[in-house]
Amino acid sequence: MKIWCLLVDNAIEACQQYEKEDKTIHVMAISQKDFFISIRNTSAPVVILNGSIPTTKPEPQLHGFGLANIQLILEKYHGEHTMFYENGWFQFTADIPLTPVS
User: Fold this and answer.
1) Whole-model pTM?
2) Rounded distance, CA 43 to CA 25, Å?
3) What is the C-alpha separation between 62 and 47, in angstroms, rounded?
């Protein structure tokens, strides 16, 4: 599933930009009746606005599509997610049903 690749890519990029030496990424994925994934990484402070994180890269019109694509995938497969930043850590958690939703 493409979603975990996008999440890990975002976590790696956040850690590369993190100025402290203690850079960490935790990944947990469980597949049973649902596919559950949680990515937690050290990060500089981020602002979450309306379920999105505005890009800080130059030429913002060319960047910042990762979370939007993840949210489209979750919507397509009736998944749910949550994300938050606290005390130097960013976490994104998603749950996607593996059985068809009627």
Assistant:
1) 0.83
2) 10
3) 19
Q: Which of 77, 85, 55 is nearest to 4 (CA)?
A: 77
Per residue, the 3-state secondary structure of the chain, as one string, reads CHHHHHHHHHHHHHHHHCCCCCCCEEEEEEECCEEEEEEEEECCCCCCECCECCCCCCCHHHCCCHHHHHHHHHHHCCCEEEEEEECCEEEEEEEEECCCCC
Give residue-wise pLDDT tens across range 15-74. Answer: 988 888 889 999 999 999 999 999 999 999 988 888 777 666 666 554 455 788 888 889
pLDDT the model gives residue 83: 94
Rg (CA), the chain: 14
